[in-house]
Amino acid sequence: MDRRLAPSAQGFHVPRTPSPLGERRSTKEPSKEPPPYSLQDELEIRYQTYARRLHWLRIIISTFILVVSAAVIGCTADSLKEYHHTSAPPSWYLPLWPTDIDIRPTQVLLGCGVFVLVLNAIYIAAAFVPRPTLPSKLRLLNITATLTSFIGLVCSLFAIVFTTSVNAYLSQDGSATGTIQSWTCKWQAMGDVVPADFPTMCKESWAAEGLIIILIVTKAFAVLATGVGWWLELKIGRGKGGQEKNSSKLESA
Q: What pTM was estimated for this model as a whole?
């Protein structure tokens, strides 16, 4: 075999003969799909994480308010029960209670406790209602939280203002009457002659007022959380709108 016919066997480089048709160029167009991860995606994930944390925070706040309102109901209901159990008709010579005692403050505190408890039970039930998407669930919870938090805050403010106003008016009036709280607490300084249930009723009345103040503070935090919820819904909605606009532009291009 002639070695001159096989130069590549001797280590020489054989140049490639160009094709007469020229090099084949790729006709594939660049992809028009959006990048798999962008700054907008990162912001949306961050806002969704905040929304989930806010969701559990509002459940914790609502559960705490539920427990406090139940305690208000327990204190005021027991005071009213003892009052009706120990009150006597005017024909008795030594009644424990004045004939014209004002029990409206205790009734208002009881009504406020029941009302706030029902409102927060509604929110907790709505928080566990399944929804197809996070924005729709956030919208449902924002609407429910707005109604329950604002109405509960107004109710609690009315209850504490009404109770303190009636107690202050009757204490300045100088009459022998009063409320369940003022009348039972008057007997504290009388030593052994105080009726058996009066010290407990006095403490329960003060506890109910203190719990209403706690409800007001907690409801204020609930209102603040509601504002954060609407802000997150706006941010998530803008992110969804921006993605839909970008995708429509890419489809039309």
A: 0.73
